[in-house]
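=== Structure Prediction Worksheet ===
Name of assembly: unnamed complex
Input type: mixed (protein and possibly other molecules)
Chain count: two
Listed entries:
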Amino acid sequence: MASGVGVNQECLSAYQELKLGKKSKYIIFGLSPDNTEVVVLKKSNSADYDEFLVDLPENECRWAVYDFEFEKEGGAGKRNKITFFSWSPDDAKIKQKMLFASSKDALRRSLVGIAAEVQGTAYDEVAHESVLDKVSRGA
Amino acid sequence: MVNYGGDEVSALVVDIGSSSIRAGYAGDDTPKAIVPTTYGFTEESPSANEDIKMSEANEGEETEKPRVNLYIGQNGPSLWRENMEVSNPMQNGLIVDFNPISPLISHCLNDVMRCNPSEHPVLVTEPAWNTQENRERMAEIMFEEFQVPAFYIANTGVLNAFAAGKGSALVIDIGQSAASVTPVVDGFVLRKGLQYSSLPQLVTAHARHLLINPTSRRPAIHLWPQQLIASKQPVDAGQNPKFELRSDRVAKTTASWKKWAEDREVDEWMQSVAGVVDQGWNEQFAHQRGPKHYEFPTGYNYYFNGIERHSVGEQFFTHSRQLVETNPNLPKHLPALISSALSACDPDLRQVLMGNVVLSGGGSQFPGLADRLANELTRSFPHVKIHAPGNPIERRYGGWLGGSILASLGTFHQLWISKEEWQEHGRAIVNQRCK
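=== Predicted Assembly ===
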C-alpha cells in the first residue's frame, strides 16, 4: 500500500552526487508543503555525525541518506556504507507519520545502492553506536 | 483514470470489527459513527399475524421466507424486545454472514452520519487474513448497492503500522473476538508470519466461568441483565441478592439474547475489575493488589480479591497445564502468537520488528496488559520498543484512524478503484489494486 506521493527529480540527482561524486556526506529529504512530492531539504558535507542528528527535528518526520564511514574491526581498513534513515519521532503529528510511512517506499525504491536501513523513532535508535552496530554487521 | 482535483474529496472510512463498526469522514481524528456490529432481529412468518412462536419462525426460515425485522445501532440489541434473537456477522475478525452487512453499513452512513454514500469514495478496512472472496464481495456491495464513486480496501495491520509512523512493524491487535500478530515490512504484510487466534473469547469465557461458579467464600453469581430485573434491594457485600425478575419478560427472552446480555455483564465486570499482573504470575503479588468492589445488576456486590481479578488477565499470557490438556484446540496466547510470528520471519528482520512493536485494538487496553507485554518481551529479546498510543481513541480505533489519514491524502486518490474501472474490469481489479 502506498500513498501515491511522487519523488522530485532533484532527489535522485542529489543522491547521485553523494553516491558517485562523493560531494556530500548526507542528504535530508522531506515532503513538499502540499504533500505531493518528496523533495531535498538539505545537502551537507559536514563529517560531524552530531550535526546530522541536529537535522532530524524532535517532532517532525524526515528521511535521510548518510554516507556512513567506519573502521572495520581488526584493522581491515575503512568501509563506507550508504545508509537510509526513516526518522519518525513519537511526538510527530499522526498525519505526518502516516504520510512518511506510506511514502517511504517511493523514495527508497528510486535510490539504488543503499547498503543499510535504519528506522528511528527516538534519538537512541539513530545514535552513532546503534547505527554502527547495524552497518558493521556483515561488512 | 480517475481525476479528483486536490484534497477536496471527502472520502468515507468504514472499519468493521467484531464489537463495533466505525465510520466517519477521512481526515477526522475520531469516527463519527460507532455502531455495535451485533444486531437483533425478530422473524414473523407471513401466515401468523398475532402470536408468533419462535419455533415456527425458525423452521420457516428457508422455505416460507419470513419477514425479518432488524434492530441495529445503539438501540438495537440493547433494548429488550419480545422474542428478539441476537446475532453477529463476524467470526474471528472475518465477515461470515454478508446479509446484515449492508443494513449495518447503511445504518452507519445514512442514519447516523446522514450522508449519501453515492457521493463519497469509501475506504473499507479488512483484517490481514481476509479472503479474496470476502474483499470482492465487499467491493460489490459498495459499488452495486451503495453506488459509491470509488472504493479501496486496506489492511488494518498496515494502517495501524502507518498510523504509528512505521513502515515496518510488528502489529499486535487485540479485538473483541480475535487477537492477531501481523509482521508488516515496508508497508506490506508478511503473510507467512501472520498469526491470529480467538484468544479474547477465551478470556471472556474464563471470566464468565469464574463468576457463575461458586467459590469457598462466595456463592455463584447470577448474570441477569438489568433489562430483566424488576426491582432490587440493597444488600451488604457478599450477601445473597434480593431481587425480582420481570417474569413477563423472562419467558419471552430468547437464548441468544440472554447469552449476549450476560456476556455484556461479564465484559463490564472485566473492564472495571479485572487486570493482569505486570511481572508474570505470582499469587502474592496479585493478592497485594487488593480487592475491588463491583455490583451486578441483581444488586449482588462483592469485593473481588487480587487473585480472582488478575487470574482473568493471565489468560492472555499463560494457560494452565490442565486447560491445555483438556482443550486440544485452545487458542494460542500472546507470547505463543508472537514467537510463531517471529520464527516465520528472517532473523535479520526479527530485530527490526521487535524494535517496532505497535499495540492496538480495544482489548489491548486491558489494565496492565501493555506493561506485562513489555516485560515478557524484554525477557526474550534485547531491543524491544512498544508503541502503545496513550490516547484511548487512537488505540481502539488505530485502524480507522490510519484509514482516515490515508484516504484524506490528495495523492492517494490515484489509487482508488473508480466505478468506471469496476464496471470495466469487474472483481479482478480489487486484488490487482489493493495490495
